[in-house]
Specification:
alpha/beta, FAD/NAD(P)-binding domain, 5-stranded parallel sheet, 19 strands, elongated
């Protein structure tokens, strides 16, 4: 916390983890177990996207599957067991221009010698009246995660890019039929993906349609579609609805601070290290390809090991020293080699 005179009274942690979910909690488990002092900002909505996932069947070790929120509860309990301090609030601002690094919340500021960012990415939704209510009950933003629950069901995918094409094609492995919905008269997806979709007999393409609402009480029973050219509406009976209009990385507070791509995904420069030495990246905040709980957890492990080795290489840091950008890379960073340290 920052006192009324502006002087910081908080302890200096070895690691501050921003964000929870599989990446953040795994990073917390590894860093805390390594006897580092760790503070995690879980966020006001802790646990990541698995908190809105009903059944998780593809996470190793749970042969009968597990509820998404229950899996996150276990992650959290394990991190707490090794001593991770947790605050259920959002980070609102960061200052990575000096050591120790500083993270701000609505309640004050906190300091650490290293940072692990695991703020994830959020699926973009259409904002339909019943979309949120039926999430986890037929409405999904991840075909890879939820496709196997829809065997022999009729499904719909909305979107016009490569992600929508990939989701539709993947779902044909399980669905009796897939309807691909797009509000324009042409796709922006790559030609090869469009060709694969058009050649698949289990996919019907609907151009110039907008989804107005999702129908169903306990589960998805259909969609209300509106023809954007004529204004006519119709009901499409389906048992599952996949929104594939993209993801948005949760990186607003790092804009102008860390290197990121045009969409906003953070970019690693050396293993999991960001463009600022001592600041590491884990999970969907940098992953626009896989977006799986198990890959995010693996990233959390990697970032934790990298942070631990980086701290060892730095030795004691003068907490009041301002870091000149020109000196960030002058100390040797030991990140490679060695055996697994779990």
């Amino acid at each position: 916390m920052t006192n009324t005179n502006g002087a910081s009274a908080s302890p200096i942690y070895d690691v501050i983890i921003i964000g929870s979910g599989p990446a953040g909690y795994t990073a917390a488990i590894y860093t805390s177990r390594a006897n580092l002092s760790v503070l995690m900002f879980q966020g006001l909505a802790s646990g990541g996207q698995l908190m809105i996932t009903s059944d998780v069947e593809n996470y190793p070790g749970f042969e009968e599957g597990i509820l998404g929120p229950e899996l996150m509860d276990r992650f959290e309990a394990q991190a707490r067991r090794f001593g991770t301090e947790m605050i259920a609030t959002d980070a609102t601002r960061v200052d990575f221009s000096h050591q120790p690094f500083e993270v701000f919340t609505d309640d004050g500021s906190y300091r650490a010698r290293s940072i692990i960012i695991a703020t994830g990415a959020s699926a973009k939704w259409l904002g339909l009246p019943n979309e949120q209510r039926l999430q986890g009950r037929g409405v999904s933003g991840c075909a890879t995660c939820d496709g196997p629950f829809f065997r022999n069901k009729e499904l719909a995918v909305v979107g016009g890019g490569d992600t929508a094409m990939e989701e539709a094609l993947f779902l044909t492995k399980y669905a009796s039929h897939v309807h691909l919905l797009h509000r324009r008269d042409s796709f922006r997806a790559s030609k090869i993906m469009q060709q694969r979709v058009r050649q698949n007999e289990k996919i019907t393409i609907h151009y110039n349609v907008a989804v107005e609402d999702v129908l169903g009480e306990q589960g998805v029973e259909g969609l209300v579609l509106r023809n954007v050219q004529t204004g006519a509406t119709e009901t499409l009976p389906v048992q599952g609805f996949f929104v594939a209009i993209g993801h948005q990385p949760n990186t607003d507070i790092f804009k102008g601070v860390l290197e990121m791509d045009q969409v906003g995904y953070l970019k690693a420069t050396e293993h999991t290290m960001s463009s600022i030495p001592g600041v590491f990246i884990a999970g969907d905040v940098a992953d626009h390809r896989y977006r799986q709980a198990v890959t995010a957890a693996g990233d959390g492990c990697r970032a934790a090991i990298d942070a631990e080795r980086w701290l060892e290489a730095q030795g004691e840091v003068n907490e009041e020293t301002t870091m000149d950008p020109g000196t960030w890379g002058t100390k040797e960073t030991v990140l490679a080699g060695g055996t697994e340290n779990d």
